[in-house]
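Hi Q.,

Before the meeting this afternoon, I wanted you to have the adenosine-5'-triphosphate prediction in hand. No need to reply - just skim if you have a minute. The sequence and ligand are here:
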Amino acid sequence: MSRKIAFVNYKGGVGKTSLIVNLASCLVEKGRRVLLVDLDTQSNASIWLLKLDRWNKINSTGVGSLFSIFDPGTDKMKDILVQSVIEGKDGGRLLPGLDLIPTSFNLVDLEGEYKGDAKRPAYLIFQEQLTEIENNYDYILFDCPPNILRASQCGIFSANEIYVPANPDALSLIGFTLLVDKLMRFQQVSASFRRTSMGPAAQVYGIIFNAIKTNVDIEVPKMRMQLRLNQFKTQKRTAPSAKIFTTQIRDATVVRRAVTLGLPTILVGQEGADADSVTSDYRRLAQELIEHVPVI
Ligand SMILES: Nc1ncnc2c1ncn2[C@@H]1O[C@H](COP(=O)(O)OP(=O)(O)OP(=O)(O)O)[C@@H](O)[C@H]1O
Ligand SMILES: [Mg+2]
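Predicted structure with the ligand bound:
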């Protein structure tokens, strides 16, 4: 059975997409089969991994993008799947085993214009389609926008684990508290649609600190986050094994450069000590995630 994981935070720009792309590539490097699902209208993960030309083709027609499974509803998730998404200059596949469900700007219509069938919420349609392909993967990672609207709900409903990328600041703590509240509300509302074969409803299993600058002491914000997490664990509002990950990702220019190159940092190469260090952070994070198996 695949591990289905959503990366969520109410706060924007904390590094969800950067973490997910780099983590996915490190999991593939470790021999895991990984599907990344882009649930964000901004399409950052899709543009990053497909590069602009290939993504533009999808965006200009909407054909092959996630919204087409909802409206008109004729496409199946397995038809829009891009296998081994990262392409080299010669058209060869640079990271076989990293697949993508791409999205484009039309996903915004899922939040407004899309009416659908009230008895079949979008997250149920999404989950049913995912069932057809999920056994092909060890990890399915959902990149969510900074909210819990319909697109995010698709990932949260299908996932069994939630991880919260965060920056060590007061706003992240507020965002985390809001997130846990909204998650619990959504899990209650969607409970009647769950089937036992889906496994348990997703809870927060971990917080991952991202973009940590050298010489900046993060012990105080980290301690505040740990206290809040302990409180939530006692109240059974997060998983009992939820933790702040030991691995934290440093701030490094190569993370931003990797986006421009359309590559995860493990494929960027030859960028100096700074790049090597952040790449080793991502590798350690992948290992820590592999070992942080949920106790069900
Ligand atoms: N470790 C890092 N070092 C340096 N820059 C980083 C790091 N992680 C992320 N960034 C940069 O921070 C910005 C925001 O990152 P990212 O897009 O991953 O955040 P996000 O949480 O997905 O944002 P959104 O909420 O808009 O989806 C990007 O410019 C990204 O390149
Ligand atoms: Mg993002």
